[in-house]
Amino acid sequence: MAALGWLTPRKRSATARSVLAGEAAAEAARKSSQELAQVMPEGETAAELGFPVVGDDLAAAFFDLDNTVMQGAAIFHFGRGLYKRKFFQRRELARFAWQQAWFRLAGVEDPEHMQDARDSALSIVKGHRVSELMSIGEEIYDEYMADRIWPGTRALAQAHLDAGQKVWLVTAAPIETATIIARRLGLTGALGTVAESVNGVYTGRLVGEPLHGPAKAEAVRALAAAEGLDLGRCAAYSDSHNDIPMLSLVGHPYAINPDSKLRRHAREREWRLRDYRTGRKAAKVGIPAAAGVGALAGGTAAAMALHRRRR
Description:
Distance between the termini: 49 Å
Radius of gyration: 19 Å
Number of helices: 13
Strand order of the largest sheet: 3-2-1-6-7-8
Structural class: alpha/beta
Mean pLDDT: 76
């Protein structure tokens, strides 16, 4: 895929692979957004929140997905669904389950876990048709993701839609998965990691690199240039300090369910913070305490039950 040349001048350096990943994500997002049905979920209106500004068509909103819009990581939920459909064996499922439990309990992204999950996903889908995975992704959303959407964050996204603005997910999850979630939530579209495909079949390689950290900022920059947006009037929402490059691009950054590093960074710069989690532990580690412990205990119990049945 050739570089698109959309990027505006940068205030920081970026690797060529980050730029490529960002531009590929922006191109895929613009194409997929034309196909998304605008089914609007219920939520607070822009007038009730006082922001965003109604009628500002030079503004848009960019939402991180994992632990910002949805509890947990989309790629791990997707892995559970593929296991159920016998795409891989129990050993891989155990790794996915451990990584998901870590993410829920720690409330932060472990780069090694995330990279391992992406490598596993690429090897699993290699040779499968894109249309097949899209169809399965619809089912997996209903099974594992629909009940994990944070109502508060969804209301924020709806406020931007009510104000007449476009709303995009920005995530390291596969663009196909991200697009499904965006469509189900009635959003404009999604920026996600682009896996290479030839004649509609996955090759097992990425275009550029995962849409993570600086690559997210490149994707937002590229999409804003293509859509004619004023980033100074745009908003961005995330839970992770890894997304500080993306949050720093816009005039209205929000820390949502923030990890400790992002919380500290946001307070130093007087960014707005919102936390939709419950329990005292949430303020310290970045997740609902009960939900995190429950996820670990439930996952352990399920694994033991599965092992007993198979024996």
